Amino acid sequence: MGSIVQRVVATLPVMAVVALIVFLLIHLSPGDPAALIAGDLASTDDIARLRTSLGLDLPLWQQFLIWAGKLAHGDLGTSIFTQVPVSELLAQRLEPTLSIALVTMTLSIVLAIPLGTLAAYRAGSWVDRLVMLFAVLAFSVPVFLIGYLLIYTFAIVLQWLPVQGYVRLSEGIGPWLRNLLLPCVNLALVYMALLTRMTRATVLEVLQEDYIRTARAKGLGVLAVLGHALRNAAIPIATTVGVGIALLIGGVVVTETVFAIPGIGRLVIDSVQRHDYPVIQSVLLLSAGVYVMINLLIDLSYRLFDPRIRD
Amino acid sequence: MAASTTALQPPVVAGRWRWLRKHPTLILGGLLLIAVAVIALAAPALATHDPQDIDPLARLQPPSADHRFGTDALGRDVYSRAVWGGRVSLVVGITVALLSTAIGVVLGLLAGFVRPIEGLVMRVMDGLMAIPGILLAIALMAVTRASLTTVIVAITVPEVPRVVRLVRSLALTLREQLFVEAARAIGTRLPQILWRHVLPNMMAPLIVQATFIAASAVLIEAALSFLGVGVPAQIPSWGNMMAEGRNFVAVAFHIILYPGILLALTVLAINLLGDGLRDALDPRLARQL
Known about the structure:
Largest sheet of chain B: none
Largest sheet of chain A: none
Distance between the termini of chain B: 49 Å
Oligomer: heterodimer
Shape of chain B: elongated
Helix content of chain A: over 70%
Number of helices of chain B: 13
Structural class of chain A: mainly alpha
Low-confidence stretches of chain B: 1-13
Order of helices and strands of chain A: HHHHHHHHHHHHH
Largest interface: A-B, 53 and 44 residues
Distance between the termini of chain A: 9 Å
Shape of chain A: globular
Number of strands of chain B: 0
Structural class of chain B: mainly alpha
Radius of gyration of chain A: 24 Å
Radius of gyration of chain B: 23 Å
């Protein structure tokens, strides 16, 4: 139990450092942050007014404490461009992004683990070579090229699926899924490559173990043996799922632009062009928070399910 | 004499060939990368048009004898722009790899050998790693004026923690090695130990890691430019070209396709080189990277 508390507490300094980095970001850049926020067209008066209204005239440590204090109360600030609270803005954009991420993850895990296990079981065969070739290619071909190839093939030439856009889940699961299919297959190819490689490597290693030989010797079938192997390969695979979240979030940002999906990734890009720093800062905090939380949960789940770590 | 050379030579040749055959990915990746580099360096000679030349009458033309890869929305020659675009990708890939490795080595060695600094450095790295790399790069681009230099910096920052973690973990092992202890026992100063005894023993994994960083940097630069937050739009980079083709997918797919293929081939070449180097330099690494 103590180790669980320790692991939970260990996320606090990470998030504190993230908050500090995110806060300092706009102060680290050369030049006046007020001028940066005001943009190229602002007059000196505008800049001065903005500086006092945003509290940028206070000492840096004071600014940080005020900002962090609000943050601790869930106040992410107000968008400079739209004058809407950032939390509201994020809430509007959350559904598409979350939909893509969840469908992609499900698709990847369901496909990658059997594929990686098969490649490991038949190591050196043509199946294995094909799987590894796929993994190398998926790591090298840019997400947005695959995205446009998918759009071109399935939406423009074959006209099976919509070209772009997003339909809310409330309008029916069918239309929602139809619009999600291409972006999710697009992203899943990359995420799958990562998971397949890791599954293959760990299962291959586990298959060398003595207990696998014992399982085979006592006459267990292929599936039962692979079951033994997968249970023991689960931890590195789960870790990769967690670490891959960062890759997935980055991929979502790009994919949303390719498929014109109004999610959080699109919001960040628009905010960069509008110099809307509170929004950018909040998205960084949110995604780092999600990353840290998911990795914490994965880590805790081993402690609960693996007796060797529990002790 | 003649007999002895014929007796000795075949095994040597066979050995060399066996080495080549043992590392096909290294050779394939290396050759591909050399081809891309030659194209980028010879851009002025290879280009058939001025990459910036606008020709409104020849907009969105499909590939033809005059325009090998067709023309874009402003009537610029896609082939000539694609050939020049390789320069941006290679410069970004190489610079980011060198820069992040250099910074990562310094911070990693400090964390590995100077106890009081270790906690601070590693906590900052944990924090940096929690923010998805491309988002951090986007945010860094948001606070600076877009230029090739700022793009390089923005991509380097998120790559540094990977190097720091690798260097520190290698340092923790090396620090306990007998030759390091011996050097310390005879009074060698720390910088000397690091330079003479520690760094040379890290070279293999560092080279492999740097290669993978170069591949990821090329991809991230293209993604940033594609999203409109990368190198300035007037510079022909593969990402910029693909961004310009975004609205013409249905009528002029070639604007996106050709730079995309070149980009994919470049990243593939670097990744194959990395895989090959990893297997050739140190088989034990295969598991860690």
